Amino acid sequence: MITVKHPIVEMNGDEMTRIIWDMVKEKLILPHLDVQLESYDLHVKARDATDDQITVDAAEAILRHGVGVKCATITPNAARVKEYDLKQQWKSPNATIRAILDGTVFRKPVMVSNVKPMVRSWVKPITIARHAYGDIYKNVEIQVPGPGTAEMVFTPADGSPSISETIHTFDGPGVLMGVHNLERSIRSFAQACIAYALDEGLDIWFAAKDTISKTYHARFRDIFAEEVEARQADLDAAGVSYFYTLIDDVAARIMRHEGGILWACTNYDGDVMSDMIASGFGSLGLMTSVLVSPNGVYEYEAAHGTVQRHYYRHLKGEATSTNSTATILAWTGAIRKRGELDGTPEVVDFGDRLERAVIETIESGTMTGDLARIAEPKPDGSASTQEFIEAIAERVS
Ligand code: NAP
Ligand code: MG
């Protein structure tokens, strides 16, 4: 048994990933670590029963303890409200936690030797940093019914004259959208990217569309450049370079690049590109995610959702083959970070050992269906959800 000095905040979730969560804890973590888990159950019914207070409590616990690990959770829509008889469409737990931790999300694919990326040039992981505030995710929209004028007006709080621009004079129906961002948030995004790149020794690429958006996107470019300049000495010392270009230029370059970089993305680009990168590297089940807060706290999770379709099969008593890799690596990320912050190398080592066991299990030919379909050489059959975790458990003991 290895003793972990300080608590890890653990957040359970929904559906198939909840099934996986309990197996991972029971078979891979608790037999090896004497760890104090501060547990929050973010099951959709538990959120509903507490009017979502449990999510806020969990986020505050992460702030207190510094390290959290989270299971995927349902973000309720109308269908989920009916399915679970919920009081309302509660906000996405991830959005709530992000708002409290004020963080940047980094997504990194796990590479295994027998699953080749779809893009031949990719030999190292491409990590995506997604700015997680504002833009279309906090937009205001109007469906324009007919002719008229759309204006954008800013009214200063200090009583100085307002600033206005005509957006468009409509001669018929159309649509309108207003978006915003905050200098504070963009700055903390840039700082988080720089800190992560220094930690991991990765060059940073950042892209926007400043040729078209000469004020909004240009502001992102300038703020990022200022933050890089402020850390230039550290970046030079670590041999980490910074490259700014247009988003379409990155889209073209990334397809011929070998990887091993941190690609910093604005909110929408990060949403879309992280899905492209995840599927390009093989499977959603191989993509890990960490929220790094400027307060120096870390929250780890798998990038995928609750794998609903598999859960319904599980409920019918059918065998499932759901990939737990990203969930296990969320745990190993949290364990390693806990060990780093506590100064306990034996805890870091266990995180490494468990991660190696996962990768070696896949590389030895034991894998779930999502990978078995694309692996080279083709394995004979695929492991069930449980068999895969048991094979890892055997290897790690
Ligand atoms: P999803 O759970 O990521 O699953 C989409 C599909 O991807 C699955 O049906 C499955 O394909 C494949 N897949 C994803 N993870 C896999 C894994 N570990 N192993 C094998 N296959 C995997 O996304 P979704 O179906 O759009 O969302 C389901 C629920 O998750 C929603 O309620 C959503 O709100 C929530 N969600 C939560 C988070 C989060 O908490 N971070 C993120 C995204 C979505 P096949 O069915 O073809 O095998
Ligand atoms: Mg997306």
Describe this structure in words.
With 397 residues, the chain is α/β, with parallel strands linked by helices. Helix content is 43%, strand content 20%. It is built from 15 helices and 16 strands. The chain has helices at 15-29, 44-49, 53-65, 78-83, 93-101, 183-200, 216-230, 232-238, 247-254, 267-280, 308-315, 325-342, 345-363, 369-372, 385-396, and strands at 2-3, 8-12, 33-34, 37-41, 67-70, 104-109, 127-130, 140-144, 148-154, 163-170, 174-178, 203-208, 242-246, 261-265, 287-292, 298-302. The chain has a 10-stranded mixed β-sheet, with helices on both faces. Strands 1-3 form a two-stranded parallel sheet. A two-stranded antiparallel ribbon has the order 8-11. Helix 13 crosses helix 15 (385-396). The chain is globular. The chain starts with a strand and ends with a helix. The mean pLDDT is 96. Bound molecules: NADP nicotinamide-adenine-dinucleotide phosphate (NAP) and magnesium ion (MG). NADP nicotinamide-adenine-dinucleotide phosphate binds next to helix 11.
What sort of overall outline do the alpha carbons produce when their principal axes are compared?
A: globular
Q: What structural class is derived from the secondary structure elements?
A: alpha/beta
Helical percentage: 40-55%
Major sheet summary line: 10 strands, mixed
Strand content: 15-25%
Total of DSSP H or I helical runs spanning 4+ residues: 15
Gyration radius (Cα, Å) is 22 Å
Q: Ligands bound here? A: NADP nicotinamide-adenine-dinucleotide phosphate, magnesium ion
- Quote the average pLDDT: 96
What ranges have pLDDT less than 50 throughout 5 or more consecutive residues? none
Structure summary, number of beta strands: 16
* Ends distance: 11 Å
Q: What's the arrangement of strands in the largest beta sheet? A: 4-2-5-16-15-6-7-14-12-13
